[in-house]
Structures are given as structure tokens and as C-alpha cells.
Amino acid sequence: MVTMENVNTHTNQNESHQTLTDKLRGVGLRATRQRLDIGSLLFSGKYRHVTAESLHDEAIAAGMKISLATIYNALNQFTDVGLLREVLVDPTRTYFDTNTSSHHHFFNIDNGHLTDIPHDEINVSCLPTLPDGQIIDGVDVLIRIKPVA
Amino acid sequence: MVTMENVNTHTNQNESHQTLTDKLRGVGLRATRQRLDIGSLLFSGKYRHVTAESLHDEAIAAGMKISLATIYNALNQFTDVGLLREVLVDPTRTYFDTNTSSHHHFFNIDNGHLTDIPHDEINVSCLPTLPDGQIIDGVDVLIRIKPVA
DNA sequence: ATAGCTGCAAATGCTTTGCAAGGCC
DNA sequence: GGCCTTGCAAAGCATTTGCAGCTAT
């Protein structure tokens, strides 16, 4: 096997990685090269929706060296510590959302594309009483959309 | 409910199977013993939430002879023709709901239990405009609940 | 130094499928 | 009889895990 030297082969990430390092340490995770790499893809500004595979493809395309297993591990760890949020839309795969605040989604059932709906643009009046001894953990609204046939 | 006898000729079976037979034929499916059996479990009055495995366990416990593969096939066929509805709650398995009308759910994240919320007890004000050329296919509201820690 | 992380491959768990035998119409 | 359905086992997928080697702190 070929041993690669420990040099980042993709561009311009020192300063964003600097911030990411703090972000990761702040939640108790070591700032490894792999976590910094995918963190730079995920937390670069705009909110994103990814699957393990889409993120892996993207990382590989960007020249990063990271295995799919590590992507899975990182996405789950990021979710555990609140850096990401899982979105339930497709029973066959798991979507992760970099927007962890309370908001909802459009899901295009035709192409699998997810779009955010700002929290204040949806109003859910929840009249029903909860089963006894239960409290609300969260509310998810998914609006499935499709092309005008 | 217990099957009284093993009728295997063209003789009439019990009357709930009689109704089911029509129901199945009405959607273009042959009234096979297996489909009638699980239909009797699913459409016996009250609305139900099942997974392929839970329904299989139940069928076996009721003395029915049916394979898990056939359960999967039947649940998918029933869903295709509108006799069932898929509910997205758990990325690791598929839930089916015998209530196909517009309504929402409580999902107890502690034990995986699903509860219906009548349609008129939830009000979703949908202000956001849809992406161009798209129409709404459906709206799902999932309220995740948990025990009072 | 050492506890934690990575990556590969194998394992897992749910779901689907190929195909021969059997059942419904 | 002909075509659809069933059931088994095998395949398929997304995801997780065991473990040896590597790395961050």
C-alpha cells in the first residue's frame, strides 16, 4: 500500500478548519483530518441536506481521502452531539440536515430533493392532548410535492 | 379471531373473508388464502399500525401459514392500490397504517409506538409558496413524544 | 503514552427477487 | 389451462461493527 504524506490536497481550508477544530472540540470530538474535511463540506455557510453516500461522493470528488464507514460514523456522531439533525423522508436511506433549528421540509417525491421551510412559515396548531405522562420531543412537518403531472 | 375450519374448495368462507374477497378483487388482486388471512388481521375494524415483521409474528401466532416474503409482497401491493399507507417514523423499518385517510401521528420515541391524530385536531397553515411547477402530494405531521424523563 | 479514530472487510438487518411448485379464476 | 401467487433461499442495500494500525492531544 502507498503511504500518503500528511498533507491536505485540497484548497483553502486552514482558517475554516481552525473554526471547525473549536467546534469539534467544543462537543468533545477530536479534530481529526477526516472530520475536519467533511466538516468543511457541511458547515461552510449555507444549510445542506446530505446522505452518507452523497457526502462521500462529494468528498472523493474534492480529493479528500475518507472511507464511507468513517462518513457514517461522523454523521452519526455529529447528530449525537447536535451538529446535525436526521430528517425522515425516505425509508430507504437517511438524510442529514445541517440546519438543526426547528424547521420543516418540502420533499420532492419525484427526484428526492429536500428543501427547507422556515419555521415561521408553518403554523401547527396542536390541539390533541398527549398520552398520559408524555411530553413533546419534536414536531416534524413534511410536505411531499411533485411536478404538475 | 380463530379460523374455524380449513375450507379449501369453492365453498364460501366466513363472511369477513367474503367482504375481503370483494375488497381485493375491487383493486385487481386475487383473493388468495394468504391475502385473505392478513387482510382479516388488518381490516377487522379498528385502525392499525404494523410492520412486516410484527404482522408476520401475529399471523404465525394466529396459526396462519404465510411466509415473511409474502407479507412484504402483500403489504406493498396493498399500499400500491391504496388499501394501506406507509408512515415514515423510523429509518430502520417500514410502518404501514390501515387508516389511509388524511391524518397525523404521535410517535413514542421511547417504545416505537404509533398513535393516530385525527385530521381535524391538527391545523397546518401553509404559507410558503411551492417551488415552481410543483403541487402538494401530501402533508405529514409527526409529533415525537417521550416520557416525562 | 494512550485513549480515541480510521479503514477495510465482514456482519447485520430489513427488504426484494429468481424461480419452481402450487393455487385462483 | 393459463396466469398469478407463494415460498424458499439467495441476493441486494444501506448501515454498523470488529479489529489492527494510526493519530490527536
TrEMBL record, chains A, B:
Subunit structure: Homodimer.
Pfam families referenced in this protein's UniProt entry, alphabetically: FUR
Protein name in the entry: Ferric uptake regulation protein
Organism name: PS1 clade bacterium
Record has Cytoplasm as a keyword: yes
Region (Disordered) residue spans: 1-20
Amino acid composition bias (Polar residues), ranges on this chain: 1-19
Alphabetical list of PANTHER family matching this protein: FERRIC UPTAKE REGULATION PROTEIN (PTHR33202:SF7), ZINC UPTAKE REGULATION PROTEIN (PTHR33202)
